[in-house]
Amino acid sequence: MYYSSQCLVLLTFVLTVNCISFNLEPNSQKCLKEELQGNVPVIGEFEVSEQPGQRIDYIVTDSKGHILARHEDISKGKLSFNTETYDMYEICFISRVPQNQKGITQLVSLITKHGVETKNYDVIGDAANLKPIEIELKRLEDLSNAIVQDFAFMRKREEEMRDTNESTNDRVLYFSIISICVLIGLAVWQVLYLRRYFKAKKLIE
C-alpha cells in the first residue's frame, strides 16, 4: 500500500493556539511540524469526518523518531504530550483504506495549544479562591514570564549560532591558508622537477 506524504509547516511565535483544517486523501498522510522547547506541555483536540470502512490514525514523534503519543482509528477526541528537549515535533494523521475499497477524502480539524495556553485558569482560580481580576493578572504574569523565557532562549540560540559561524569562518580561513601553502609547495616542486629533467636531457644548462 502506497502512502503519499505532505507536511504542513506552521511557523509560530510563543504561546499560540493553532487551528487548522485540511482534507486527507485516501491512503495518504499529512503532518503538522513545529519547533518547541523542552518540558513544554502540548494539548490538542481533533475531529475527523467519518467514512465507512476507512480509518485515520495519528502519531506524534520527534526528529529522532521517538513516539510520544499515538492512537488508531480516531474520530473525535484529544491528544496530549510533553516535549522532552528542544526539537522539531511532528503530529501526523494517516489515512488507511482497504485495497478493495474506493477511498473518499476525509476532513481533519485540529486545534493545538502549548505553554501557558494549556492551563485552565478557571480551575486554578477556583482552587485558590481568586477573583476574576486576580485570575486575569495570574494569566498575564505567566504569559509575561513565558515570553521572557522564550526571548532568553532565542538569545542563547543566537549566541550558539554566532559561535558556530565564527568557528566555521576560522576553519575555512585555516583551510584556505593550508590550501595555498600546498599549491605553492606543489608549484615549487614542479619547477624544480622540470628543471632537473631538462638538465638531464641537456635541454638547458
From TrEMBL:
Protein name, entry field: GOLD domain-containing protein
Organism: Hypothenemus hampei (Coffee berry borer)
Domain of life of the organism encoding this protein: Eukaryota
Domain GOLD: 29-139
Pfam families cross-referenced by the UniProt entry: EMP24_GP25L
Record has DNA-binding as a keyword: no
Keywords: Developmental protein, Membrane, Signal, Transmembrane, Transmembrane helix
Main location (coarse class): membrane
Keyword GTP-binding appears in the UniProt entry: no
Signal peptide location: 1-19
Listed PROSITE patterns: GOLD
GO CC list: membrane
Membrane spanning stretches: 172-194
Topological category with respect to the lipid bilayer: Single-pass type I membrane protein
InterPro entries hit by this protein: Emp24-like, GOLD_dom
